[in-house]
Write a structure and sequence with these properties.
Largest sheet: 4 strands, mixed
Shape: globular
Radius of gyration: 12 Å
Distance between the termini: 34 Å
Strand order of the largest sheet: 1-4-3-2
Structural class: alpha+beta
Order of helices and strands: EHEEEH
Amino acid sequence: SPSPMSVSYVLVDDVHAAAAKVADAGGKMVVEPHEVPGGDWIVRCRDAQGATFALQSSKASRAGKSVSHWC
């Protein structure tokens, strides 16, 4: 049976650009970028040490509204 786990989401301006930075740093995409209901975009990644996380780009950030982000 699957092991329980949680995934941290990081809000970014552009999931495609942020996923490219993950790859440049030695990580990889686990699930390709895709649109979710409501218009946000997400991509699931794994860093070079094997930690899984997700990147999310909100409709608000693409509309030019200020959002907090890490990448």
